[in-house]
Amino acid sequence: MHAIEKLLAKKAGKASVKTGEIINCEVDMAGINDLYLQTLRSFFEMGGKRVHDPSRVIMFLDHYAPASTITQASNQKQFREFCWDQGIDLLMDIDQGVCHQVLADKGLAYPGEIVVITDSHTTTHGAFGAFGTGVGATDLAIILATGKLWFRVPPIIKINFEGKLPKGVYAKDAILHAIGALGADYAVYKAVEFGGSMLPHLSISERMALCNMSTEMGAKASYIQPDEITMAFLKEKVTRPYEIYHTDADFEYADEVTFDVSKLKPQLAAPSSVDNVYDLSQFIGRHIDQAYLGSCTGGRAEDIGIAAHILHGKKVASRTRFVIVPASKGVLLEAMEKGYVKTLVEAGATFVTPGCAACLGTHEGMIASGETCITTTNRNFPGRMGDTKAEIFLGSPAAVAAAALMGEIVDSTLYM
Amino acid sequence: MQKLLSGNAFVFGNNVDTDQIYPGRFVEFTDVEDVAKYAMFGSDPDFTKKVKKGDFIVAGTNFGCGSSREHAAITLKAVGVGAIIAESFARIFYRNAINLGLPLIICPNISKLIQANDTLSLDLQSGTIRRERELIATVEPMSEYVLNILENGGIKSLIRHQLEAENNV
User: What are the tens digits of pLDDT across the range A94-118?
Assistant: First the structure.
């Protein structure tokens, strides 16, 4: 069996599982975010009275942090009251940041865990050897009521990245390249394991970016086998007991693809789908109205550090704005300690409260009709960050910061 | 669950994402009447004026990709969409729709077989899709698990019965 299958079998109380089988699993951590008041409604509509296990529920006020409208404020108020009423101690209020980063910062993402959040990018936690998957409000309400959720055991595919990434090229480029080659629906209903000789060179931050973006090829979950880098990250953070699973040598993947990344160039997903991917060089000279660095994909301290390196002692281009959204409070504190915030604010960047901000087109950095944005986030669908007639390019933190500096898309490897 | 559905087809392409079905800036609305106002707004702002109860959405591959927002399924059910027939669905959207009792039918090549405004009928029992009397396709039956959810009008009533049974033990 694969490590993911062993994990699912354990949580379903079975000795083994097979692809396609429907199983009912104990969920270790169920997360709700502030977009989905429907979760609480569905809970009560199903006759729920008390949450099955409040210690396994976490509430994130991240997408609307802090509230920009009265409706958002009212929704957040109802979430807080629900937590207080139900004894849910893990209330991550508006100071904390994006759910996935907060989970990692607090040691609540760990090997062998089933983590389910009302957020499609819950695949991020494959970076820790967890089974992370996104669901809708009603599915999450079922976990609140019963502690369990049904899953179909997914076919598992393996994507190998071979070689070491060239200087100035990042995991974000590697995953964009793979999504471009394989398509936005390549991994629908499937789980994706990432492997290959690139992996031991990747930090946890870059592994999270990789697993996060597997959602954009439709994956149900992703997985990276925990190694020394994982353990070094978890050591100081995780207090809950956990188990690391290993894939049997004779396991047969449903599909296996390999990409050589040793000569990979910076990539961009061009408007308006994530699999519309080209070498960045094809767009050099394109004017940028807004550069945006943030989100659960590209808003970590390492990403902000790359921007600080590129903009140190320089200024953001005069007809370009540079919006930076640290993924979490922990990220913001680290960026402050390392001097990144000072460097970037002096360069003319605009810092926004940790959270999801404009990534999903609700507030704090929306873009107008006819504008072009380059961003470290995960989606460039029409209207994703504002007007449907705005254009969005997805790229690495270096591609975004270099574009902020020059006011147009440039070869970011020249600025490292 | 109504087993025989008929209505007009609204045809969309591949990778119709949740921002097209229900844009992010309207996600703060939670009452069904409000959510119903913005169905397909990111793709066709006049959709809600044209769609009638029982009509079908027909699409290519990966319908509903993107966000986990249940609003996308809620809004389509609320405006009366009878079923969605697509070449494939994104998985969270699939679960959300089935949980609400909105039938989703997977049918290869359907976006090439159907034109906008075709009048279709769908027999959920036999899996047949017809345009007037012409048989367009026969699809694989849904899994028993999914059919059970649909026949109970969505998963909420199933869980409600489960919780009631546990409380009465």
Answer: 999 999 999 999 999 999 999 999 9
| A141 alpha carbon, distance to own chain's centre | 22
State the angle between helix axes of A137-146 and B91-100 in degrees (0 to 180), rounded to the nearest 10: 70
Q: How many beta-carbon pairs below 8 A join chains A and B?
A: 125
Contact: A388, B160; criterion CB under 8 Å: no
CA distance A112 to A130: 5
Contact A103, A31 (CB under 8 A): yes
Handedness of CA B110, B112, B114, B115 (dihedral sign): positive
As beta bridge partners, residue A59 has: A32, A91
Instruction: Please answer yes or no on whether B73 and A136 come within 8 Å at the CB atom.
Output: yes
* B68/A37 CB distance under 8 A: no
Single out the residue of A209, A189, A228 nearest to residue B64, CA to CA.
A189
Is residue B160 packed enough to be buried (19+ CB in 10 Å), middle (13-18) or exposed (0-12)?
A: middle
Residues in chain A: 416
Q: Do A3 and A247 contact (CB within 8 A), yes or no?
A: yes
Residue with tokens 């992996």, as numbered in its chain: A199
CB-CB contact of B51 with B4 (8 Å): no
Is A38 buried (19+), middle (13-18) or exposed (0-12) by CB count in 10 A? buried
Give the residue from A34, A191, A222 showing the smallest Cα distance to A119: A34
How do beta strands B56-59 and B83-86 pair?
A: parallel
A216 close to A298: Cβ distance less than 8 angstroms = no
Asked if the Cβ–Cβ distance from B24 to A361 is below 8 Å, we say: yes
> DSSP secondary-structure letter at A122?
G
Name the residue type at position A50: R
Which residues from chain A sit within 8 angstroms of residue B68, using beta carbons? 36, 118-120, 134-136
**A285–chain B nearest CA distance, Å:** 29
Owner of token pair 């940028």: A288
**Shortest CB distance from B15 goes to which of A22, A137, A184?**
A184
What is the pLDDT at residue B86? 98
Residue A145 and residue B88: Cβ atoms within 8 Å?
no
Please list the ranges in chain A whose pLDDT falls under 70: none
Residue numbers of chain B with a pLDDT score lower than 70: 169
Question: In sequence order, which ranges of B36-154 are alpha helices (DSSP H)?
Answer: 47-50, 71-78, 91-100, 110-113, 144-151
Shortest CB distance from A218 goes to which of B69, B74, B90?
B90
Asked whether the beta carbons of residue B68 and residue A361 sit closer than 8 angstroms, the reply is no
ipTM: 0.95
Residue of B nearest to A363 (CA): B25
Structure tokens at A81: 């009251």
CA of B73 vs chain A CAs: smallest distance (Å): 10
Q: Do A273 and B90 touch (CB under 8 A)?
A: no
Rounded Cα–Cα distance for residues A296 and A24 (Å): 28
What the block records as the tokens of A144 is 């609140």
Distance CA A4, CA B49 (A): 46
Peptide bond into A272 cis (omega under 30): yes
Question: Which residues of B have a CB under 8 Å from any CB of A?
Answer: 14-15, 17, 19-20, 23-25, 27-30, 42, 61-62, 65-71, 73-74, 88-92, 95-96, 99-100, 143, 145, 155-156, 159-160, 162-164
pTM for the model: 0.96
